[in-house]
């Protein structure tokens, strides 16, 4: 009987620890948007076209390629990256990409191309 009571008490302690541990992990979790590497997202999902100018894509790091585009910069670029624009398919044709990954890649491209741009 004592052994059963001990096992039940030990079970409650483990459940309590697991519950408290998960609360601690959740409360101290880093925002996943904050850890997305825009350069890595760009390199993996966008560079194939935006490095070469394929199908008229404005090249990253080449401000002249972006002339005549909206001065609303980031907001418009994010929308175009998500929904497509002219020859560029939505999300670069990778429909499974999450908005935050698309946004991080687009922001990297914009910031790298226009380092002194005004904020939206």
Number of strands: 0
The dominant shape is globular
Distance between the termini: 69 Å
Query: What's the CATH superfamily of the largest domain, by name?
Result: Cytochrome c-like domain
Mean pLDDT: 75
Number of domains: 2
- CATH topology of the largest domain: the name is Cytochrome Bc1 Complex, Chain D, domain 2
Secondary structure: helix percent: 40-55%
In the CATH hierarchy, the architecture of the largest domain is Orthogonal Bundle
Using the CA coordinates, give the radius of gyration.
23 Å
User: What structural category do the secondary elements indicate?
Assistant: mainly alpha
What characterizes the major β-sheet?
A: none
- Helix-strand pattern, N to C? HHHHH
What does the oligomeric state look like here?
Answer: single chain
User: Low-confidence runs (pLDDT<50, min 5 residues)?
Assistant: 1-28
CATH class of the largest domain: Mainly Alpha
Instruction: Estimate what percentage of residues fall within beta strands.
Output: under 5%
Number of helices: 5
How would you describe what is shown here?
There is one protein chain. With 120 residues, the protein is an all-alpha fold. The protein has two domains: 1-30; 31-120, Orthogonal Bundle (Cytochrome Bc1 Complex, Chain D, domain 2). The protein is 52% helix and 0% strand. The protein contains five helices and no strands. It has helices spanning 2-27, 38-45, 47-50, 74-83, 99-113. Helix 2 crosses helix 5 (99-113) and helix 4 packs across helix 5 (99-113). The longest helix has 26 residues, at 2-27. It is globular and about 30 Å long. The termini are far apart.
